[in-house]
Design brief:
It is a single chain. By secondary structure, the chain is of the alpha+beta class. The chain has four domains: about 90 residues, no CATH class; about 130 residues, no CATH class; about 200 residues, no CATH class; about 110 residues, no CATH class. The strands form three sheets. Strands 3, 4, 5, 6, 7, 8, 9, 10, 11 and 12 form a ten-stranded mixed β-sheet that branches. The chain has a two-stranded antiparallel ribbon with strand order 1-2. Strand 13 and strand 14 form a beta hairpin. Helix 14 crosses helix 15 and helix 15 packs across helix 16. The longest helix is centred in the last third of the chain and has 31 residues.
Length: about 650
């Protein structure tokens, strides 16, 4: 029986011989035999060996015998001759490990090229039937509708009630948890709908007026002092307490086991549902993703280098060409899969479910566009136009790999309804459409450039998402926080303002009547804070009863809000002296302003200062209103603080 020699032995035998090259050449020839059937044998040590043919075995045996006797040229050698024939072990290559005796399954490749043709026909859009009935925005609103009315259709009473109920519920459970004796949470009192609207107004105000911290909005320092925050009857502590307890769901309610979005899902359903019920998009709709900036610890936090905010929560949006957000879905690693489509295609169909079958054109980028998605949308009477990844399955390889010069195109068509095009601009651009052929048109501008109509339509429609994100970024009230769902909630509020502005501008086509995002925010903030502002305005316009009456009756004396905001903090003994000094200074300023105002007003021989445009008179009155302190109230409140170191309940 022939003795087998392992790899180590034959390498040692052939180490310094000229026959090593012949052995290596022989092994290379054996590896090239693709149709040879291999067998595997296991010896006592369990190692597999390769059975070679008799001719190859004889050749190796002769070479080995020559090596043992001497070199190939016939020189004698002192080495002992092996009597047993040499059997070549299997080369130590992972791919040549023991081969299964089962026959490999032969799969016939799909002939993709046969499905595509160079004969390209001109394609047209589907007939749009989405506006056969009047659009919802034209039915619900008219030219007399103001921006706040539209806004309250999106942020309606159901949304406010959800915030009120869940905020109060969360606050009650928070009070049951242990805390520090002087913690702010023990001052909690249930919030109601007017106060929640006021709270939202302050949130929007922080987007219009940007200060470093929230506390700065209530400071009386000349750098930060803003009189509006001292007229709305909401202190800094109260705002922070509501913000802490701001909630949108019942944490103890039954839910799906792996639901990662239960904290924010009720609010999304209400706001996006209201946005859908008051607006009918046009023929062009676009799907893309945006980011809500967040760098905290979150399971589904994403990193997208191409976005302005690289880290954050990824949002899939469906928008109209004007930028109206109609669909909103948070990426959480869990999505609904549509049969026959991949994940990205399923997202498009899920977002657009209420808009299909009406002849619209869907604009997508290369993350979503695919041949199966195009065929699915065609079956739902919807066109698709967008850029496509050249590595997608089902695309004609000769078009995707074509080498083009600048301005040239390569195009093919499938079943006379799906067109794939590659166009060379500064770089290669691959696109797919079900409503375009290979026609090209010049661009508008000073230097017209010939481009495919498919690309022009994509560029025109794709801006919808960009416009929506751009307008939502203006005057955004989003601030740093570790609570991710509150950031998403503020993003939804910003979207509500953008959607309201788009509807308002559509109802007022005149350029002079259109609102900017800043003007829309200002109008909404004024209306949200209107009850308190009207109350303050009424008190400030109270006529003087007598010329010689006291200062509190002669001049508009605001309430004790400024004092309340000061003593509402958790005081320490070191701050008492500061309060006394500040109160004394305020009293002196109030007296001086009152005397000067009295003299000037009587010099005008009138008590209604608003009838005059005298800048000096207005400056004096504004100085008096900014002081906002009455001498008797300040003295009384400071004495209370000095005696028991506590804040009166009526001042909280």
């Amino acid at each position: 029986m022939a003795r087998r020699i392992r790899d180590e032995d034959i390498r040692r035998i052939l180490e310094d011989s000229d026959g090593e090259e012949e052995i290596i050449e022989l092994l290379d020839q054996e590896e090239d035999l693709q149709d040879e059937e291999y067998q595997d044998d296991d010896d006592e040590d369990g190692e597999a060996y390769l059975e070679v043919g008799p001719v190859i075995e004889e050749t190796v045996e002769n070479i080995a015998r020559e090596v043992q006797i001497g070199d190939v040229s016939g020189q004698p050698s002192n080495e002992r001759v092996l009597d047993n024939p040499i059997r070549l072990p299997t080369p130590d290559v992972p791919s040549r490990a023991p081969v299964s005796r089962r026959r490999r399954r032969s799969t016939a490749p799909v002939d993709i090229a046969a499905e595509w043709s160079f004969e390209v026909k001109e394609l047209s859009r589907k007939q749009f039937t989405g506006h056969e009935e009047p659009p919802r925005q034209q039915v619900l609103f008219d030219s007399d509708s103001d921006i706040y009315t539209i806004f309250r259709k999106i942020i309606d009473d159901d949304v406010i009630n959800l915030m009120v109920q869940q905020t109060n519920l969360y606050a009650q459970r928070l009070l049951q948890e242990p805390g520090k004796p002087h913690s702010r949470k023990f001052r909690w009192s249930d919030v109601d709908e007017p106060e929640m609207l006021k709270f939202l107004g302050v949130i929007f105000l922080t987007g219009i007026i940007v200060f470093p911290t929230l506390e700065c909005y209530w400071k009386k320092d000349d750098i930060y002092y803003h009189p509006l925050l001292h007229k709305i009857n909401m202190s800094y502590n109260r705002f922070r307490l509501i913000l802490r307890c701001w909630h949108f769901c019942d944490n103890n309610a039954p839910r799906e086991e792996n639901d990662r979005l239960y904290k924010i899902s009720p609010l999304i359903d209400l706001i996006i549902g209201n946005s859908r019920t008051i607006y009918t998009p046009g023929q062009i709709i676009v799907v893309d993703e945006s980011m809500v900036h967040f760098r905290g610890r979150l399971l589904f936090c994403q990193y997208i280098p191409s976005k302005t905010h690289k880290y954050g929560i990824k949002i899939y949006k469906l928008c109209s060409a004007e930028g109206y957000t109609w669909g909103y879905q948070i990426y959480s690693g869990q999505s609904v899969q549509v049969f026959g489509l991949d994940t990205s295609g399923s997202i498009v169909v899920t977002l657009a479910e209420g808009l299909l079958d009406e002849g619209r054109c869907m604009i997508t980028d290369n993350y979503y566009t695919s041949v199966p998605l195009a065929e699915f949308l065609l079956s739902r009477n919807t066109d698709l136009c967008g850029t496509v990844n050249r590595k997608r399955r089902g695309l004609p390889k000769d078009v995707m790999d074509a080498k083009l010069a600048t301005g040239e195109i390569a195009v093919k068509q499938k079943n006379e309804n799906v067109t794939v095009l590659k166009w060379k601009d500064k770089r290669d651009v691959c696109a797919l459409s079900t409503c375009h052929g290979k026609e090209m048109s010049p661009t508008s501008g000073r230097t017209p450039k010939l481009k495919p109509n498919m690309i022009l339509s994509y560029n025109k429609g794709k801006k919808g998402i960009d416009v929506a994100d751009q307008m939502a970024s203006y005057n955004s009230p989003i601030r740093k926080t570790i609570i991710w769902y509150k950031k998403v909630a503020i993003d939804l509020l910003a979207i509500a303002v953008v959607n309201s502005t788009i509807i308002y501008n559509e109802m007022h086509p005149g350029s002079r009547e259109k609102l900017t995002i800043l003007a829309a925010h200002e109008a909404i903030v004024k209306m949200l804070l209107q009850p308190d502002l009207l109350h303050q305005e009424t008190r400030s316009r109270t006529p003087q009863s007598q010329a010689g009456s006291s200062r509190s009756s002669e001049l508009p004396g605001p309430s004790r809000l400024a004092v309340r905001d000061t003593i509402n903090e958790e005081f320490s003994p070191r701050r008492l002296n500061f309060i006394e000094e500040e109160a004394s200074s305020s009293i002196a300023n109030a007296d001086a302003a009152a005397e000067e105002l009295f003299v000037v007003s009587h010099a005008k021989d009138s008590h209604d200062w608003e009838e005059y445009d005298d800048d000096e008179l207005r400056r004096i009155l504004e100085a008096y209103e900014e002081v906002n302190i009455v001498e008797e109230n300040v003295t009384e409140d400071v004495e209370m603080i000095q005696t028991d170191q506590s804040v009166p309940d009526e001042l909280i």
